[in-house]
Design brief:
Strands 1, 2, 3, 4, 11, 12, 13 and 14 form an 8-stranded mixed beta sheet that branches. The protein has a 6-stranded mixed beta sheet with strand order 7-6-8-5-9-10, sandwiched between helices. It is of the alpha+beta class and about 300 residues long. It has 9 helices and 14 strands. Helix content is about 30%, strand content about 30%.
């Protein structure tokens, strides 16, 4: 039994619930409490979904999470067998600091199709959208990739914007990008949302580069399948980058995928939770790989 098209709209309830639970913690400086609230809410809602899911990308050992851990069975047991990737808050520190770009995200694929990172927490990545998906090559230099993307998008190199996680490990990468004349947008956290920006219109982001989380790389692959973009990654462990290149299809080997992302704080792809007199409004991006359908859903929640 393969995942059904209606799953997309069931998933939006899952990310909405997690985002609503995280929202009261925005700007309070308590990232663990924010994450705990989102995890608890997401787990309760995910178990109402018609599927027999196994968490492949979960809160995992890195976060020492008691719920939504790798290998956990989720869903109500009815319906298709699925691999499930969850990130109740992509951007916990953004949430805690009240900064832009935090989302709640879930991705589904047929059982056995998602790459299992096991203990590989980090990955060197390059991500871009449809127009330049066929020209990126992580084994080439930074300047070569930027000029290829510029050419594919009929832009000057100086018009290209690359998003990079603001980390000391990226000092040389940032220097190399700036030497090409391209612009950089530094982010503190949340590289799933940033990767999706590379493949969405009017975000002003053309490329994502640098070392981020491997679990986030798998979720990004699902997004790229839906949006026609591409990710390439190399596992990075103990300061050493594995030369093997993992492509989009290595990270998720199916077109029959779904992804839902709901904004917690405002970002380029979706607005954050807004509290109203009667409750709250949420904004979500819901995608399906097979049909390449992308929905933007605004929901009014009477709380």
């Amino acid at each position: 039994m393969i995942p059904d098209r209606n799953l997309a709209l069931e998933l939006v309830r899952v990310t909405e619930t997690a985002a609503l639970a995280a929202a009261p913690w925005v700007g309070r400086g308590e990232k663990d409490l924010a994450d705990g609230a989102a995890v608890k809410a997401m787990r309760a809602m995910i178990n109402t979904v018609d599927m027999s899911g196994v968490v492949v990308i979960g809160e995992g050992e890195k976060d020492q999470a008691p719920m939504l851990h790798n290998g956990e069975q989720v869903g109500n047991g009815d319906g298709p067998s699925c691999d499930v990737a969850v990130d109740p808050i992509d951007g916990t520190s953004l949430t805690a600091q009240g900064m832009n770009g935090a989302i709640s995200v879930i991705a589904l694929a047929p059982r056995g199709s998602m790459f299992d990172p096991q203990d590989s927490f980090y990955m060197n990545k390059i991500v871009t959208g449809l127009e330049a998906a066929s020209v990126i090559d992580i084994t080439k230099s930074v300047s070569e990739n930027i000029s290829r993307v510029a050419k594919a998008k009929s832009l000057n190199v100086t018009d290209i914007t690359v998003v990079v996680l603001n980390r000391p490990r990226h000092k040389n990468l940032i220097e190399e990008i700036r030497n090409t004349g391209a612009r950089i947008k530094l982010i503190q956290d949340g590289d799933v949302a940033a990767a999706i920006e590379t493949a969405r219109p009017d975000t002003g982001i053309d490329l994502l580069m640098g070392i981020g989380g491997t679990p986030e790389g798998v979720i990004t692959a699902v997004a790229m399948i839906c949006l026609g973009g591409a990710i390439q990654g190399q596992l990075h462990k103990d300061g050493i980058t594995d030369p093997r290149v993992l492509t989009t299809s290595d990270l998720c080997n199916s077109e029959d995928v779904f992804l839902s992302a709901t904004g917690i704080t405002d970002g380029e792809i979706v607005q954050g939770i807004r509290h109203t007199k009667f409750g709250a409004t949420s904004h979500s991006l819901v995608m399906r790989g097979k049909s390449k359908t992308v929905r933007l859903i605004r929901t009014e929640h009477n709380l």
